[in-house]
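hi support,

uploading two proteins for the ticket. first:
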Amino acid sequence: LADGAASAAAAPDAAPWEEGNVPPAQNEELTTRMKHLLEAIAQDNPDLAKDVVYPREAWMQTKDAQDPGKLWDSKVQSAFKKSVHRSHKRRKHMDRAKFIGFELGKNVSLVPPKKKDLKKPAWRVKRSKILFSVDDKSLSIEIAEMTAYRGAWYVTRLR
């Protein structure tokens, strides 16, 4: 899988439904973006993690909905902002959070097209984790769902 995942990341325009395409692998770029997400939660500022949110352009291309843009605004962007705020409030001393690492969820799956969901198949993974510490205590934040687009993973549901 590592070799195939690397080739998928090297060919970001390869569509997930093309034969031979595999889900993206965890890499340094993804780890950096997850660090941005922890910073956004620690500072209660979702704008610091714009690079981890599933892109609106991708949503428009892949979502089977009457108004996919409006749906992205409410289901992805607005929900992401609320989740960042809730995650910040839920834990004490987040301003002292130190990033340790990121673990991509273990159950990556190719989700088939489905009415009122996807127009085309897409790779999804659930239960990825950001690992961090606060005052030397190891903690984690679970990401509910990530979806691949053009060779990279993006958050579609934080909580």
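and the second one:
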Amino acid sequence: MLLGAGDDWTPPEPCLALAARAPEAVTVRLLPGAHHGFDMLGGAVRAWLLPNGRRVHLGPEPAAREAARAELPAFLARHAGTP
């Protein structure tokens, strides 16, 4: 799991709790400073007001995007052919 530490739209805590139940099967990388949509190629982090009144942030974090992209080939190589 590649999770944005600053994601206030889909906070990482539920995913961290789920991963903790099967640490041998799940690898977690918490990406500092990353909001929801950290892997976007352009734009800026913006605040959004959801219909329920909650204020969240969405936008790119270049360092987190590059870190995630750097890990992807190794992950795919480890799981190639896995159903």
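thanks. also noticed: Strands lie at 2-4, 29-31, 46-49, 55-58.
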